[in-house]
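Hi L.,

You mentioned the student needs an example of a multi-chain input paired with its predicted structure. This one should do, with 538 residues in total across all chains.
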Amino acid sequence: MPEPLLVAQNLCKTFTSRGRRVTALDDVSLTLAPGETLGLVGASGSGKSTLARVLLRLLAVDAGAVRLLGEDWLQLRGQPLRRQRRAIQMVFQDPLAAFNPRATIGGVLADPLRIHALADRAARPVRVGALLERVGLPASYAARGVHEVSGGERQRVAIARALAARPSLIVFDEPVSALDQSIRGEILKLITDLQKSEGLSYLFIAHDLAVVRLVSHRVAIMESGRIVETGPTSQIIDSPQSPAGRSLVAAVPRLEFPRAQ
Amino acid sequence: MNRVAGRLMRSPEGVAGFCLLVLLAAMALAAPLLFPGDPLVIVGRPLTAPFTDPALPLGTDRLGRDVAAGLMHGARTSLLVGLATALVALAAGALVGTVAGLAGGLVDEALMRVVDAFQIVPGFLLALAFVSVTGASLPVIILAIALGAWTGPARLVRAEVLSIRERDYVASARVIGMHPAEIALREVLPNALPPVLALTAVIVATAVLVEAALSFLGLGDPNVVTWGSMIAEGRNVLRTAPHLSIVPGLGLVATVLGVYLLGEGLADAMAGREARG
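Structure written out for the whole complex:
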């Protein structure tokens, strides 16, 4: 068995707000193999986004360890941390909030190329154009402002930005829940197509199973800071064991008609 | 930027302020051309009334100095002090506010207590004390006024930075491995500045008034003409030659009004509002 890409062990995180302690992560462990998509499902406030932010080193944990590509990821600091960040990228829920309001699309995509020295100054516009085409946008979009394009297009730019760093793992935090129903399918198809062509690992966070089942190999179900159930997608959908899993499966809308009596 | 300029030019206060300031700037720039030489030299009989001598349209003061030349050259000093003070105050405030907001913790606490210390002393007293100790020259006066003016921008920038640093686009910048200094300068600061620019108008106007007050008290730079020192001169003959105080006073009113109106229009334009009313 190949070494897993990412191993998280016993992660704990507690927030204190106005004297109340809220446990966001309670002894969470998970592993992710290269080329695998793990769907992370749970109700609002179950700790999914906290887990994402911890794995991206945007939040510090209280306890636990994460190994990424064989390195002790949570112990890195400063320059080595910034260099290693290339391996794990993120696509945020709200594509409007995820970009500097003043940025142009070309500038946004050139930043990771510059920071990680993936392309020299002269080669960057070509690489930016190629990235845009890979996510289904015309290369001419590079000159536009991030705020001049539609929400779906902006989320494509966010995916292109994540790809620009040539990561091993991309964390999607509810990437389609802020988008129109009509374009969700296209974005999900883009995400799965990219995985096949690039061999990426995904951690795909969503609050409904209907989206997660389309993209995930395995599913983990979170409830109040704990992973209560994990297994292959079909197994979780067909026979959920935990109460949280059963209620999530029951919440998936189905096209079934009641049988005539 | 073009949209902001367009909205500014459609708002009545923006246009009025812009015109007033263009007029004053033209006066300041044209001063050495129209009135070459030192405006402090004696050119005629003392206390010539205005509109009596074509060569001295606004008359002369108690020592026979040209009031029109003083008015034009005074515009230079007032605008220079106003803009330079705002620049110094904004730069210092933005630096302190950004560092405090991003660093947090002890650094934030320490910097904010320094801001408190400056804020509890009235700005004018601070400037007065600073100038009396160090002696009056234009750079010292600018620094002295900025000493009381940088705390507003510092607080405002810090508050903006505290909100902006939690935004997703700052998280995105960290995720792609951007250096913290670059995040501060490229992602956070440019987005924290617009509300501070609206405050600039208040700083410029206050600086012009404080400079005039310092000059009025005889603490201005004695080598340059300022509206404050002209008013101080005219005060002694207020009954017999009121124009000596009124003319530079009108200059002050026009400057402060112009700056306020432009600032008001600019704040509205940047907030995306069309002209009210």
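You could point out the following to them. Chain A has a mean pLDDT of 88. The radius of gyration of chain A is 19 Å.

Best wishes,
N.
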